[in-house]
Design goal:
Distance between the termini: 17 Å
Number of helices: 16
Order of helices and strands: HHHHHHHHHHHHHHHH
Shape: globular
Oligomer: single chain
Number of strands: 0
Helix content: over 70%
Amino acid sequence: MNLDFFTVLSDFDLAIIAAYLILSCLIGIYLKKQASKNLNSYFVSGKNLPWWLLGTSMVATTLSIDTPIVVISWIRDPGIWKNWFWWSFLFTHCIIIFYFSRYWRRVGVLTDNELIEHRYSGKESLFLRYFKAFYFSIFFNLIISAWIISAFIKIFTVILGDISYALLFVSTMIAIFYTTLSGIRGVMLNDFIQYFIAFAGSIILAFAVINSDIIGGFSNYFQLVKDLPTDKTSFFPGLFNMDDFLTFLAYVSVVWWTSHNADGGGYIIQRLCTAKSEKDGVLGTIWFILNHYVLRLIPWLFIGFASLLIFKESNNID
């Protein structure tokens, strides 16, 4: 599909995109002086950030371009219960509220990797710290970046055509620009803006889809959803559907505590280390959980069930 970028988007669309990209750069430039004072300012922003910024930045970091699409695809096949793959981490995040959120702030490290040399001793601890830094910064992050970039290209090629590659390059360069310039504070402020843009977009899409001619408004929507197969709308798989039920049991009993980020993961820990107090770390984590598991999920559920009503069931949708 070869579409002209400037014919697909209106002048108003282009103005919104340009304004957002310029704002991201300006945040980086504005915070450059503060971030460059010392390592403490760059990595933990002087440990003076409030709970609402911590929590919003946490949930924004868990939201990539493909996240709502994956959630919706699981609603379609095999059913909404599949989301226990990430709902099960609620157990981890509750532990963070009552334990880790206080101690990551108290331990005084700049990164979670630094804790290794506090916890262990000798040359082995230094080797482990270097190995973990190399492994996660190179191999692990390359895998994550690859699937997000793949999703970006797949989604925007449908909308905009081949210009998507240029858009990927520009947006990546801008992200690198403000991240390098402004440190963790600039990242978190941009996270804050990005999250509410994405959240608003989900709500607008949900209203647009449900009020479309195919569905005909909310009253008709709820009636149509009642007629959907129960295996799509049930939050738990059937006990006699052995494969699905065993998968569900693996999620809620094993996966969440065996994960590499069972202590919250580097991105959550890094934000906890910026809290201006232990109380802010706790409140920020609570705000993160409320957004992560409840608020942002609601419009995705509406859209997911609507997709079943509009496109029916199909095994061929990518």
